[in-house]
Amino acid sequence: MSSIINDERKSNADRQEQLRVSGLYKSYGDTPVLHGVNVSACAGDVISVIGSSGSGKSTFLRCLNLIETPEAGEIFMSGEKLPISYDHKRGAVITNKNKLQQIRSKVGMVFQDFNLWPHKTIYENLVLAPIKVKGVKKEVAYASADHYLNKTGLYEKKDAYPGQMSGGQQQRAAIARALCMEPEIILFDEPTSSLDPELVGEVLLVMKALADEGRTMIVVTHEMAFAREVSNRVLFFRNGVIEDQGPPSHIFGENASDACTKFVNA
Amino acid sequence: MNINAIIEGLPRFIDGVIITVTYAGGSLLIGFFMAIPVALMRSSRNRFFYWFSTGYVTFFRGTPLLAQLFLVYYGAGQFHHELDVIGLWDFFREPWFCAIFTLTLNTTAYTSEIWRGGLQAIPKAEIEAARACGLSDFQLLRHIMFPRALGIGWPAYTNEVVYQIQATSLVSVISVMDITGVARSIASRDFVYYEAFLFAAALYLLLVYGFIAFSRLVEKKLHRHLKDTTT
Ligand SMILES: Nc1ncnc2c1ncn2[C@@H]1O[C@H](COP(=O)(O)OP(=O)(O)O)[C@@H](O)[C@H]1O
Ligand SMILES: [Mg+2]
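# magnesium ion complex -> structure
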């Protein structure tokens, strides 16, 4: 089923560009982490980001909504340039906070450790940003929360606090929180890496359903089955650059770079 | 035991309780909110804000409240003319104003440290998640950071309230008739020191444990997410 969708995606060449990153650089002190990353993604793309630990995957993802500030590079989200400029003296500067907040409201993010707000119920976690950031009416926000809670199978947990749920449930709630903002693109940073093995499946199932709906997703993952079967493009990170990329058939095939082949077969 | 002196003095003691509750409650209420900007300034990268707030907190936490009270009440007298010019002398000549003014500045300093500790204890990831949703700095503080910090700091704040209720007894030395002031006056007039101060102590205990009971209820509400009910 997903392969049919992948084919559709490939054939549909004139889809709208959703993301473009060019010349992204970042270092921590003397340690360079990203050295010129260039990527673009179209609406409906599901891009898996793979690579060994420390290769810069999270840093890359976190630069996309300026949770981390890069040192150089341009990022376009849904055609809008992220409001950052680089100054010799002051370093990276956010030039327009309102604009950044507005762009962030269209970019969902799902973290490895869920990062739900523990003092709020699941319901409150889901409706806060739609109401406060997007100015959605309360009834509408709650209706939308109901919808996505049903979809992630968490409706009966709506009044629970995050601390009262399993890791798998918390991560599904975090995905529902992102969906409630009706994002144009969703970033996932190793969404299953903190979960007990028996809970990984339920989260992957939800993510696969989102991919099947045609949502635009960028997923940092160690789940090779997901990269191979659900995504239509894979980026292989190594030492802060995208060393190889292409459809899963390439990355998991014989023509991938040696390091990439070694990594995916490890 | 001279119970009669206490019974006769009961109406005055009740006035004293009202004064104690008003002074402690008023200074705590104002201090609770004033402490927020002080805590934010203490964490600020702006050097003026940082040094101003740090100097303020260091002074008020590092010196005795009684000395602060004398400094304000008697010290203001030295600046009688200057205060008159800016229209503040009418306030600073009043013991009630100097008492509440000093108590407020004092509790603000302590409370700001509680806020600061609470804000710093919030896991960075929760703040990041809020930023990623597009919350503004103010919304982040209002909806995520303050409620979290309040939950974290509440047990420490309960202690601050208890200390403050007891610390108000110092205002009696600038002739404010709080519980201690009334007790001193009744004690020396009727020579019933033992009875008067024992009764005053009982009143403080009542106030303090009344508040602690209330604080438990608040804590239950603030920490309801920590209840481990696997529904
Ligand atoms: N806040 C930070 N401060 C210093 N070094 C960091 C920080 N975050 C990440 N790094 C370093 O940057 C490199 C890339 O990290 P990261 O992007 O998290 O890699 P990945 O997600 O691929 O495992 C690592 O070497 C890591 O130690
Ligand atoms: Mg990572």
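# post-check
Chain B has ten helices and no strands.
Chain B touches chain A at residues 125-126, 128-137, 139, 143-144, 147-148, 151, 222, 224-231 (CB under 8 Å).
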